[in-house]
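Q: Predict the assembly, please.
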Amino acid sequence: MNVSTRFPMPVAAHSSLRAGIGLRAQHHADIVARKPAVGWFEAHSENYFAAGGAQRSYLTKIRTDYALSLHGVGLSIGSTDPLNRGHLEQIVTLVRDFEPMLVSEHLSWSSVGGRFTNDLLPLPYTEEALRHMVTRVRDVQDVLGRQILIENVSSYLQFNCSRLAEWEFLTSLAKESGCGILLDVNNVYVSARNHGFDAHVYLKALPRGAVKEIHLAGHTARRIGQQEILIDTHNRPVCDAVWGLYAAALERFSEAPALIEWDADIPALEVLVAEAHKADAIAGVTHVAAA
Amino acid sequence: MLPLRDLQELFYGALFDDAPSAVAPWIHCYETDGHEADAAQGVAIDPHARLAIYRNNLHEGFRKALALEFPVIERLVGEDYFRQLALSFQAEHPSRFGDLHCIGEPFARFLRQRFEDTQYAYLPDVAALEWAYQQSSVAADAPSFDPAALRNIPQEGYGQLRFTLHPACGLVRSPYPVMRIWAVNQPNADTDEVVDLSRGADFILVRRAAEGVEMRRIAAAEFAMLDAFSQGSNLADALESACTVAPDFDLAETLRRLIALDVLTGIQPTSRPPPGEPPS
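A: Predicted assembly structure:
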């Protein structure tokens, strides 16, 4: 028994890998009042950097009833600036205070020269970038004293100096740094369409044991001239093609809990819960088929 | 091979239009027959259109975050003008934080430079009020004032006391009725009232109550005292500031009330020598 924890985990959250949903402030009161039937919640770390006040107090209440993961969007882990120690210290504090089951960051960078875009910008997949990411991920894991997951991002361009495919880069990063992989199936789909690779090749290349979480989200198609590019907008339901890719991912990564992300034009809580239940249904079918 | 550092600098510069073409040669171009996207080859759009997607994300993400912190400013100036303001503000004050909640700190100052001496001179004060509101909502919690803190302090030493304000307290003053402007521009405010800018100055205390952030207009003398405390003044000096504004200022009543409201939550340790030791 872990006597140090302040959050005895409810049995339901422990005993299943039911899908979770991204935690948004609009839903705080609803979640506390109604305790929806979802497996867990994922909070954007930066939304809870507050030292006190209502947001933090809601997170404490929600954490009492559910398992939690902390998903960072601002550490800029791939930047060549020195690692942002102040930002990392705030994550350390959150991890200490909320005892998340998973902590994740992105395969991207967002700042240079101390100036931040607050976006998830793509890296070139070079040997130099791989060495850099391995060092940075190790540093972050050392400071946190635990494994982190690194998530693949949607991208709208590729650098012509890249020598590795994204899935090769991510696999090497996981092997060499010891990090896990947060596989965003929607991002794989978006990037596959934008850059012309086979999403199934991507999934098959990732090592089975390394994928510890799966993200599902909606995207938007934008026309530019005669072309159509997919943008990772997180503002609508998961599309059928991405549900199909999720089912394929489950064949390899059936232990990885899924999470529904919805970050813009946020609907009522019920809509997100229904998406999570849809993910559960797909996972259930797969489990039966595999048995 | 371009070092990663150089690529990131070129890319950032391209997003801010310093040199949009400098990074383009490093962006992969897809073969195309000029028509439909070929699934095996990727979407055939040129590097500048690709960069434009990231540039749009950069500006839209910043604007949305700013609008969340300053909804009244957005409502007062309208969405289109707010978009322009956000662009200029971002160019002058690009985000320096991994946390987008921090970008609004210089916004009131930015608006002051722009609108001072214009008919919109109230805008920076409204922005200061909105920022104080946001800061109050995320500030640290603090325990209430403990009367035991005064136990070993002789009454003649009270003048040297430095009271501390609750971290969630903010002070905003304006020659304009900014609190009324704020109130009639709330989403749930059912009013077409046009606020008369000549109706006078506001001295506002922002604090966090059990139900959330609360703003209240307070007397100028009380504001002067709290302002003095927030800058580290001792009680004697803070009282003098208050009495300069209102000679009949009731110190005892004001302190009692502010302690009961959890506005004053403690006293700073003083450098006063312990009892019995002669002052050096």
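Chain A has a mean pLDDT of 93. Chain A touches chain B through 56 residues (CB under 8 Å).
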